[in-house]
Amino acid sequence: MKNRIITGVTFGALWLLVLLLGSFKFFWFMILVIACMALYEFFTIALPNSTSQRPAFLILALLPIIGVFNGQAGQMQAAFMLALFLSTALVLIIYSDQVNDFTELAKIISGITLISLTAAHLVLLMSAASGRQWLILLTLITTASDTGAYFTGTLLGRHKLCPAISPGKTWEGLAGGLIAAVIVTIIAAPFIFPDSSILKLILVSLLLSIIGVGGDMTESIFKRSHKVKDSGAVLPGHGGILDRVDSILAAAPVLYYAIKLGIVQ
């Protein structure tokens, strides 16, 4: 527990410093580094027998983030399609004599989509109007949701949310996470977005919290299917980078398109 708290506070403080003080290019670079580490963990688990090919898949998977270095959604989309095309071609070449080549391709596309494409939306959020403020609010919501769910589930959890996927998650934990996200939104939103509708922001915080849980559950499915507990061990008390960022990665595209569609302003 002590390691978990220390690591969480340290990681969170560094992340907020990047959001508050870093330039756009520095933020893009940090997202590139974080995504690279998360993808490395993902491919190490998903492709354990493809050590020599893993660097090539890693580079291709990073194309959506590389493509968004100017904050343009169109370039990100083009880079994403290029990543899918080149990855498919590479899989057909490398695994042409194997019967499970489609399985390998599905794993690679999953990594590109679930990690790189979603991480690129963090960069798009930074390039949007009031991008830093939205990223701070997103960070507060997902962190509060994760923390509230963890402690509420530990103390009060009785009813399993989805035991086949994640035995530790409970309905009580889910409720605690949602309540924590709403409380943080009510406290922080007037300072970050004083002119925005607090009701809309509360509804968005609930949506982002639920989507974040979905991202966490998706990673749990991935880890359980490969019989591993954590994606890595780089963060004491938390596991790997992917274990720490799965919720915010899942929520980032939802918030970005909510802003673009004018649902929140």
UniProtKB/TrEMBL annotation:
<keyword id="KW-0444">Lipid biosynthesis</keyword>
<keyword id="KW-1003">Cell membrane</keyword>
<dbReference type="GO" id="GO:0016024">
    <property type="term" value="P:CDP-diacylglycerol biosynthetic process"/>
</dbReference>
<dbReference type="Pfam" id="PF01148">
    <property type="entry name" value="CTP_transf_1"/>
</dbReference>
<keyword id="KW-0443">Lipid metabolism</keyword>
<feature type="transmembrane region" description="Helical">
    <location>
        <begin position="108"/>
        <end position="128"/>
    </location>
</feature>
<dbReference type="InterPro" id="IPR000374">
    <property type="entry name" value="PC_trans"/>
</dbReference>
<keyword id="KW-0812">Transmembrane</keyword>
<dbReference type="GO" id="GO:0004605">
    <property type="term" value="F:phosphatidate cytidylyltransferase activity"/>
</dbReference>
<keyword id="KW-1133">Transmembrane helix</keyword>
<feature type="transmembrane region" description="Helical">
    <location>
        <begin position="27"/>
        <end position="48"/>
    </location>
</feature>
<feature type="transmembrane region" description="Helical">
    <location>
        <begin position="55"/>
        <end position="72"/>
    </location>
</feature>
<comment type="similarity">
    <text>Belongs to the CDS family.</text>
</comment>
<keyword id="KW-0594">Phospholipid biosynthesis</keyword>
<dbReference type="GO" id="GO:0005886">
    <property type="term" value="C:plasma membrane"/>
</dbReference>
<feature type="transmembrane region" description="Helical">
    <location>
        <begin position="134"/>
        <end position="152"/>
    </location>
</feature>
<feature type="transmembrane region" description="Helical">
    <location>
        <begin position="5"/>
        <end position="21"/>
    </location>
</feature>
<keyword id="KW-1208">Phospholipid metabolism</keyword>
<keyword id="KW-0548">Nucleotidyltransferase</keyword>
<keyword id="KW-0808">Transferase</keyword>
<protein>
    <submittedName>
        <fullName>Phosphatidate cytidylyltransferase</fullName>
        <ecNumber>2.7.7.41</ecNumber>
    </submittedName>
</protein>
<feature type="transmembrane region" description="Helical">
    <location>
        <begin position="198"/>
        <end position="217"/>
    </location>
</feature>
<feature type="transmembrane region" description="Helical">
    <location>
        <begin position="78"/>
        <end position="96"/>
    </location>
</feature>
<feature type="transmembrane region" description="Helical">
    <location>
        <begin position="173"/>
        <end position="192"/>
    </location>
</feature>
<keyword id="KW-0472">Membrane</keyword>
